[in-house]
Amino acid sequence: MELQTLTYLVVGATFALYIGIAIWARASTTGEFYVAGKGIHPVANGMATAADWMSAASFISMAGLIAFKGYDASVYLMGWTGGYVLLAMLLAPYLRKFGKFTVPEFIGERYYSQTARIVAVICLIVASITYVIGQMKGVGVAFGRFLEVDFEVGVIVGMAIVFIYAVLGGMKGITYTQIAQYCVLIFAYTVPAIFISFQLTGVPLPQLGLGSTINDGSGLSMLAKLDAVLVDIGFAEYTAQKGTTLNMVLLTLSLMIGTAGLPHVIVRFFTVPKVKDARASAGWALVFIAILYTTAPAVGAMAIYNLIKTVQPGQVGAPTANLQYEARPEWFKNWEKTGLLKYQDKNGDGRIQYYNDKNKDFAAKASEYGWKGNEMVKVDRDIMVLANPEIAKLPNWVIALVAAGGLAAALSTAAGLLLAISSAISHDLLKGVFRPDISEKQELAAGRIAMGGAILVAGYLGMNPPGFAAQVVALAFGLAASSLFPALMMGIFNKRINNKAAVAGMLSGLGVTLVYIFVYKGWMFIPGTNNLPNNADNWLFGIQPESFGAVGAMINFAVAIVVSRMTAPPPEHIQHLVEDIRVPRGAGGASH
Questions:
Q1: Residue 91 carries which DSSP code?
Q2: Calpha distance 293→307 (Å, rounded)
Q3: DSSP per residue, 177-205
Q4: DSSP letter assigned to residue 213
Q5: The whole model's pTM is what?
Q6: pLDDT tens across 329-384, in order?
Q7: Which residues pair with 378 in a beta bridge?
Q8: 28 with 440: CB under 8 angstroms?
Q9: How much is the pLDDT for 503?
Q10: Closest CA to 158 of 137, 184, 177
Q11: Could you tell me the sign of the dihedral formed by the alpha carbons of 23, 25, 28, 32, in that order?
């Protein structure tokens, strides 16, 4: 069957499934809309959490990062999974025991302040909107290639699908939809990885194939061969560290504490019946996440190897005068139509030269060959996972499955983020601050309206993203790390932190991180400068914007502690409340 027709059938079937689940699990109360009635089994919640967590950044963009950054991209694997250990040990059970609907609600009550609650809402919206941009871009990329529609049209279709099942079902519908989406995305990710691993190494398990001998007769392992191929065309070895250790440490820390501070992840642990189920949910989520995260390094490595060998086959790094091959493979032409992959025939020989023209030694060698520069002028990293089955010439049904999986990953996380935003607006701002007397029915309607508004904003920003998906998501983690995580940690483990300290800390951490990101991403004009280019020469102490969330978190902690020492301690009943949250008593059942 033709690829486009098959893709429409597979993607259409998954969309019908999601909408059907939303209708079946429609939320009828605010409890069901915000926290699924607190009745989700830990295993089911673990699977839904994994889908909520494994966004377009994990499914589509992370392997693209690994493909182009190699060893340096391992921080994403460590940071994004390590955060769940923090969640399971330090936050999830205590927040569940507190028994509220949202993160701002916890902060508002713990810090006995409506101001603190409003600041928490602002932090939540900033981080969540930044995160959802990456999901909408992932939707546009998948639709743009496989359904052959414009990127913007793809985003609009994705918005419509999320609107139907998120607005209709709330957290209850989203939870069961995410369970289905997990099954789709994990099957879609692992099946092509198994095919390609077997194709390149004869080993079907990608995790083992990455370290196995490649079947090209060289006798080299997959990674050793990839190192050699990249060195041949002037790049650094794939397995070599290229960034600074400081950046790697700070980025890992930023991703870890950002994970533990993301409201759409935390709220998942409010949906289980008992406190001990919150810990169990985090454990099951790690199991389900590990299936994809242990496969991603193989997917990334094999994708870049296949890319190089198909656009520049033969003895890479040698003259290509005697090589006879099609200048652009069919998969290349398909992705060119999306505008996410471009090449320029600089020397007019009808072939594609792909090499590092910034490497002086190799550039001199390339000049001898008559090469005029790297002709792969644009390779969007977000295409690598989606293009990988086409590059490897896998069957059409596998390619269609990958498209459905990418959409499932993006939509599942987008729905969770949008619910967190709408809950903050309807429950924390409207019900909690401005209209405490609002009825449950009115609050539910307000939540759905807020969800619709958030989808429109997310769609617009998704059509005008400030970077590739994983990069934008990394910024969102930095914002959550610098603002919400310290307030949650100190709220649970330091009874001396008062409302003034919490507000000052959140505003300081968020403000410093936002300014740093905007300045060093070149999005903010600085008087007397021509805008600072986004490179290591301009970064403060060489710290890249994606890593700065950890520094923002340290500033948040420091400001809050200093302010708390200079002001009156919290009221007695608040200090008792903090102690009660941490007491093991009642660990088998929630305190309400």
A1: I
A2: 21
A3: HHHHHHHHHHHHHHHHHHHHHHHHHS-S-
A4: B
A5: 0.79
A6: 888 888 887 777 888 888 887 778 888 888 888 888 888 878 888 888 788 777 88
A7: 342
A8: no
A9: 94
A10: 137
A11: negative
Angle at 471 between CA 465 and CA 475, to 5 degrees: 90
In 3D, which of 266, 253, 267 has the Cα closest to residue 553? 253
The answer to whether the beta carbons of residues 352 and 312 sit under 8 Å apart is yes
Residues in contact with 536: Cβ distance below 8 Å, sequence separation at least 6, in sequence order: 244, 542, 544
33 within a domain of the structure (yes/no)? yes
Residue 589 vs residues 98, 272, 584: alpha-carbon distances, Å: 11, 11, 11
Helix/strand/coil for 342: strand
Q: Is residue 208 part of a domain?
A: yes
The answer to whether residue 589 sits within a structural domain is no
pLDDT of amino acid 225: 92
Residue with tokens 């991703």, as numbered in its chain: 255
The confidence score (pLDDT) of residue 587 equals 45
- pLDDT value of residue 561: 95
pLDDT of 564 above 90: yes
Give 468-507 pLDDT, tens digit per residue. 445 566 677 788 889 889 999 999 998 899 999 999 999 9
Q: Which residue has the tokens 């903090």?
A: 578
Q: Strand 341-342 to strand 378-379: parallel, antiparallel, or no bridges (unpaired)?
A: antiparallel
Report the candidate in 217, 100, 70 with the shortest Cα–Cα distance to residue 577. 100
Number of folded domains that form the chain: 1
Query: Is residue 527 scored above 60 in pLDDT?
Result: no
Domain membership of residue 240 as a residue range: 3-303+387-469
Reference 490, options 509, 475, 476, 477; nearest CA is 509
Per-residue confidence at 25, pLDDT binned at 50, 70, 90? Answer: confident
- Residue 213, beta-bridge partner list: 221
Distance CA 4, CA 72 (A): 36
Distance CA 218, CA 269 (A): 50
Which of helix, strand or coil describes residue 462? helix
**Whole-number Å distance between alpha carbons of 422 and 408:** 21
If one counts every other C-beta atom within 10 angstroms of the C-beta of residue 437, the result is 6
Q: Which of 447, 456, 568 is nearest to 501 (CA)?
A: 568
Closest among 324, 332, 338, 284 to 308, alpha carbons compared: 332
Give me the phi and psi of 221, to 5 degrees please. Answer: -75, 165
Q: How far apart are CA 76 and CA 83, in angstroms?
A: 11
Residue 128 sits in a domain whose CATH number is 1.20.1730.10
90: how many CB neighbours lie within 10 A of its CB?
A: 17
Token pair, residue 550, equals 């950890």
In a domain, 333, yes or no: no
How many residues can be counted in the chain?
Answer: 592
How many helices and strands in the chain, by DSSP H and E?
25, 2
Distance CA 271, CA 285 (A): 14
At 57, list the tokens: 């950044």
Give the pLDDT score at 588. 46
